[in-house]
Amino acid sequence: MNFGVVAIVGTGLIGGSIGLCLKERGLATAIIGVGHRKVSINKALKIKAIDEGTTNIEKAAKQADIIILATSVNLIPDYAKKIIPLMKKSAILTDVGSTKDYIVSQVNNEIKSTCNGEKPNFIGAHPLAGSEKRGIESARPNLFEGSVCVLTPTNFNSKKCITRLSNMWKALGARISIMTPSKHDEILALVSHLPHFVASSLAGVIDEKHWKFAAGGLRDTTRIASGDPELWLSISRQNKQKIIEALRCFSKEVECTINDLEQGNDKKLLGRLKKAKTVRDKKKWKQE
After folding, report:
1. Angle between helices 38-46 and 13-24 (to 10 degrees)
2. Which CATH number is 5-179's, of 3.40.50.170, 1.20.120.80, 3.40.50.720, 3.40.50.2300?
3. Name one GO biological process term (predicted).
4. Which of 8, 21, 218, 225 shows its CA 20 to 30 Å from the CA of 95?
């Protein structure tokens, strides 16, 4: 299986890991890394995540059979706007952003307003892998093994292109889940965005002088609060309403717990603790 020339815009953790896996498994004819800084491109070349690198996005877009936007979510629509007029008719444009409704609507609006005749294929994607770490230094070829990759195709996309992109992610080790952009954002607000804001709030509420007493529990619970603040600000802007709904849902649960504690309702409190343990223990985590 070969996916031709693959251009990766943004060779950080996710983009670099895609490149490493494509090369290790012989899935591409060539991998072009695109960045705005030569130092980042050189790092990707050094660890052999890409075959060639460039700061010229036009050059890469014209050659590529698959173009992957692996930048922060706020940059994806602008990069797509530059790339769409340059794409080969048979090429696929995709991304790895953790928000989908805003990105997909913005890119499809651009396609509708600027493209006459046959429309290029943009298929939103989100590999549910990674960590709070960033940068090519943390990239690894097995990052997507056993993970889930969500695809959010629309009526603009051909079945052939959806299948081709699905096959690429399967070849990288991921299981495919297809849903609407809105459904993706609703789910991710609960399972990804909410945990980050909860972890961030927890880290923020503890006095700095008390951290010396913290052990594994606080370390594990607040790990994701180490994520890039600017990236999470962009995510919060693009999925604002669904994150608010998720936080309100969590807030209600916290209020119920406070009431149980105030009223000395050990039975209800124990029930909550048992339910949480049961749900958590059923999940088989990738690293386990």
Report:
1. 30
2. 3.40.50.720
3. tyrosine biosynthetic process
4. 225
